[in-house]
């Protein structure tokens, strides 16, 4: 549960930074082209796909066990 909460907090922080950057066209362009931000989005994408696969696997295991 702590991993899910941590991921949601990171997602919220990234969303707030993106919303703040989208108010100005120049800031938005710099934000999009920043390799650090791109890496953060890629890491978040990998993390959420891992969590999805983990929940599906756990659901399958518990479904077949009981």
From TrEMBL:
| Topology within the bilayer | Multi-pass membrane protein
List UniProt keywords, sorted A-Z: Membrane, Transmembrane, Transmembrane helix
Example GO biological process: respiratory electron transport chain
Which domain of life does the protein's organism represent? Bacteria
Select a single GO molecular function from the record's annotations and give it.
Answer: cytochrome-c oxidase activity
Membrane spanning segments where? Answer: 45-65
List locations, semicolon-separated.
Answer: Cell membrane; Membrane
A GO CC term assigned to this protein in UniProt: plasma membrane
> What InterPro entries does the database record attribute to this sequence?
Cyt_c_oxidase-like_su3, Cyt_c_oxidase_su3-like_sf, Cyt_c_oxidase_su3_a-hlx
The Heme-copper oxidase subunit III family profile domain covers: 1-66
In Swiss-Prot or TrEMBL terms, this protein is called: Heme-copper oxidase subunit III family profile domain-containing protein
The root-end lineage is: Bacteria, Pseudomonadati, Bacteroidota, Cytophagia, Cytophagales
């Amino acid at each position: 549960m702590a991993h899910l909460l941590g991921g949601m907090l990171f997602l919220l922080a990234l969303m707030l930074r993106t919303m703040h950057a989208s108010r100005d066209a120049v800031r938005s362009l710099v934000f999009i082209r920043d390799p650090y931000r791109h890496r953060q989005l890629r890491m978040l994408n990998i993390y959420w796909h891992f969590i999805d696969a983990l929940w599906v696997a756990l659901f399958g295991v518990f479904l077949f066990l009981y």
